[in-house]
C-alpha cells in the first residue's frame, strides 16, 4: 500500500462523482467519523480503492488535546475505518473539540504550554497503541490564542512530534490564516518546523470576514496561499498535497482549475 | 467556582487544563462569561464562526425550515442558539422548530417538515429521536401525504 502521493482531494459524498472522474488521482481523504464500519465502505470509495487510489481516514472528533483521556470507542472507530479502507496512515488534529460535557462543534486551540504538550502526547500514545497504521498530526487554524502560551508554535509542534514519533500533516492554509490573524510571518514558522516529517499537506480556501481571515473550506484558495505552498515546496517538497473543500461546491471546471493550480504551485503532475 | 459538568461528573480542579478548557467551551457555546485573559475580539469572532458552522449543519438536516425562513435563517438561528450548546444538527433544528411553533413564527415549510418528523419519530427533547413503530403502510402514507402537500405548497425543489 503506497502512501499519499501527488495531488489529492478530500472525498465527500457531494463531489463523489467529480472525484471518481479524476484520471490521475492517487489519493483521497475521507472524514473518519462519516464512515460507518458496520457495513461496506461507501460505493465511491470502494471503486477508488479498486483503482489503487489510497484512502486516508481523517479524524475530526478524537479531541487529542482534551484534558480527559481520549475515548477508546472513538479510537476504535478510527482504527476500524483504517482497516476497512486498507489505509496507509490516518490523521487527526492537535486540538480539542469538547470539554466539561459540552461539544464545541469545531477544532479549538490548546494553550502552548508544557502541560498541554503532556496531555496531547499522552492521548496520542493511547491512540497509537490501538491504530493499525501510522498517525499524522495536523496543527489547526485558530482565531484566538490562550493568554498563557509558554512556547512558540514551532517549538510546541516540534516537541509533540518528537515525543510521539507521529508524522506531520501540515495545512498550508492554516499556516497562512494563523500568521495573517496574528500578524506574524508564515515563512518563519515553516523555517522552524521539521518539514521532513510531513506525510502530506492540506490546502483549502478561506475568506476575510469581520477583520479576520477564516479558513472556511467553502471559498476559493487565495493566490497568497498558493504562493505559500510554492514557497514551502521550494524548501522541501512533501510527498503529497490534498485540497479540502467542504461546501458551496463550485462548478466542476472551477474545481479542476483549482486542483491544477495546486499541482502547479507544488510542482506535481496534474490529476485532472 | 469551576465549570459545571452537565454529565454530572466531578468538576475539574480549579485552574487545571480540564477546568480551563471547560470554561472556554462554555463561553463559546453556552453563553458563559469568557475566561480571564483572553482577547475579547478574537473570542467573539470564534463564537460567531462556530454559530455559522452550526447553522449550516442544522440547515442540512432541516432544509425546509431554513428555506422557509429565507434571509432570516442565519439571524434566527444565531439568536436562538447563542447560549444553547448543540445537541447535533437534527436535534438543534427540531428544538428550534418547536420553539418557533410555540412563538407562532414557524414558517409553513418548516411546519410541514416538523409535522412529518413528528409523525415518524418520537422525540422527547432530551434524548435522541427514535423511530416510531408504525405499520409500513402508515409510514408510506405519511411520506406521500407530506410530498403531496409540499407539491401543492410549491416547495423550492
Overall description:
- Chain A: This is DUF692 domain-containing protein.
- Chain A: It holds the Pfam family MbnB_TglH_ChrH.
- Chain A: InterPro entries: MbnB/TglH/ChrH (IPR007801), Xyl_isomerase-like_sf (IPR036237).
- The complex is a heterodimer of chains A (272) and B (157).
- With 272 residues, chain A is of the alpha/beta class.
- Chain A has nine helices and twelve strands.
- In chain A, helix 5 (153-164) links the parallel strand 7 and strand 8 (167-171).
- In chain A, helix 4 runs parallel beside helix 5 (153-164) and helix 8 (223-235) packs parallel to helix 9 (252-266).
- In chain B, 29% of the residues are buried.
- In chain B, a hairpin with a 7-residue loop joins strand 1 and strand 2 (130-131).
- The radius of gyration of chain B is 19 Å and the shape is elongated.
- Classes of the chains: A alpha/beta (272), B mainly alpha (157).
Work out the number of β strands of chain B: 2
Largest sheet of chain A: 8 strands, parallel
- Give the percentage of residues in beta strands of chain A: 15-25%
Backbone CA Rg of chain B: 19 Å
Distance between the termini of chain A: 23 Å
Largest protein-protein interface: A-B, 31 and 38 residues
Output the number of helix runs of chain B.
Answer: 7
Q: Which structural category fits the helices and strands of chain A?
A: alpha/beta
CATH class of chain A: Alpha Beta
Mean pLDDT of chain B: 86
Structural class assignment of chain B? mainly alpha
Strand content of chain B: under 5%
Which architecture of chain A per CATH? Alpha-Beta Barrel
In oligomeric terms, what are we looking at?
heterodimer
Element string of chain A (H = helix, E = strand): EHEHEHEEEHEHEHHEEEHEH
CATH topology of chain A: TIM Barrel
Please state the average pLDDT score of chain A: 96
Gross geometry of chain A: globular
What is the number of strand segments of chain A? Answer: 12
Q: Widest sheet of chain B: strand order?
A: 1-2
InterPro entries (chain A): MbnB/TglH/ChrH (IPR007801), Xyl_isomerase-like_sf (IPR036237)
Pfam families (chain A): MbnB_TglH_ChrH
Organism (chain A): Micromonospora sonchi
Protein name (chain A): DUF692 domain-containing protein
Amino acid at each position: 500500500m503506497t502512501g499519499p502521493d501527488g495531488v489529492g482531494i478530500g472525498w465527500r459524498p457531494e463531489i463523489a462523482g467529480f472525484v471518481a472522474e479524476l484520471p490521475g488521482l492517487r489519493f483521497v481523504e475521507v472524514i473518519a467519523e462519516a464512515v460507518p464500519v458496520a457495513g461496506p465502505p461507501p460505493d465511491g470509495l470502494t471503486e477508488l480503492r479498486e483503482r489503487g487510489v489510497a484512502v486516508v481516514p481523517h479524524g475530526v472528533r478524537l479531541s487529542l488535546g482534551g484534558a480527559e483521556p481520549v475515548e477508546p470507542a472513538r479510537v476504535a472507530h478510527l482504527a476500524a475505518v483504517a482497516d476497512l479502507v486498507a489505509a496507509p496512515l490516518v490523521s487527526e488534529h492537535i486540538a480539542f473539540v469538547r470539554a466539561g460535557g459540552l461539544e464545541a462543534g469545531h477544532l479549538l486551540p490548546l494553550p502552548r504550554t508544557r502541560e498541554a504538550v503532556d496531555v496531547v502526547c499522552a492521548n496520542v500514545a493511547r491512540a497509537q497503541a490501538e491504530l493499525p497504521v501510522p498517525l499524522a498530526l495536523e496543527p489547526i487554524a485558530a482565531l484566538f490564542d490562550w493568554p498563557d502560551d509558554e512556547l512558540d508554535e514551532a517549538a510546541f509542534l516540534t516537541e509533540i512530534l518528537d515525543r510521539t514519533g507521529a508524522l506531520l500533516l501540515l495545512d498550508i492554509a492554516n499556516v497562512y490564516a494563523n500568521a495573517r490573524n496574528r500578524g506574524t510571518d508564515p515563512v518563519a514558522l515553516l523555517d522552524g518546523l521539521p518539514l521532513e516529517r510531513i506525510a502530506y499537506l492540506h490546502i483549502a480556501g478561506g475568506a476575510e470576514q469581520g477583520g479576520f481571515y477564516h479558513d472556511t473550506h467553502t471559498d476559493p484558495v487565495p493566490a497568497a496561499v498558493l504562493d505559500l505552498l510554492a514557497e514551502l515546496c521550494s524548501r522541501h517538497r512533501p510527498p503529497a498535497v490534498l485540497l479540502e473543500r467542504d461546501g458551496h461546491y463550485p462548478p466542476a471546471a472551477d474545481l479542476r482549475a483549482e486542483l491544477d493550480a495546486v499541482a502547479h504551485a507544488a510542482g506535481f503532475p496534474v490529476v485532472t | 467556582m469551576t465549570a459545571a459538568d452537565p454529565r454530572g461528573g466531578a468538576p475539574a480542579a480549579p485552574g487545571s487544563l480540564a477546568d480551563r478548557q471547560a470554561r472556554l467551551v462554555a463561553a463559546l457555546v453556552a453563553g458563559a462569561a469568557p475566561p480571564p485573559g483572553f482577547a475579547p475580539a478574537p473570542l467573539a469572532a470564534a463564537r460567531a464562526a462556530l454559530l455559522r458552522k452550526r447553522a449550516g449543519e442544522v440547515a442540512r438536516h432541516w432544509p425546509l425550515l431554513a428555506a422557509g425562513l429565507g434571509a432570516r435563517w442565519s439571524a434566527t438561528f444565531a439568536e436562538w442558539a447563542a447560549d444553547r450548546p448543540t445537541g447535533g444538527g437534527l436535534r438543534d433544528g427540531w428544538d428550534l422548530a418547536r420553539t418557533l411553533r410555540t412563538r407562532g413564527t414557524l414558517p409553513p415549510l418548516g411546519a410541514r417538515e416538523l409535522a412529518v418528523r413528528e409523525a415518524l419519530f418520537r422525540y422527547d427533547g432530551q434524548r435522541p429521536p427514535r423511530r416510531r413503530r408504525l405499520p409500513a403502510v402508515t409510514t408510506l402514507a405519511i411520506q406521500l401525504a407530506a410530498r403531496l402537500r409540499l407539491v401543492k405548497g410549491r416547495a423550492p425543489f
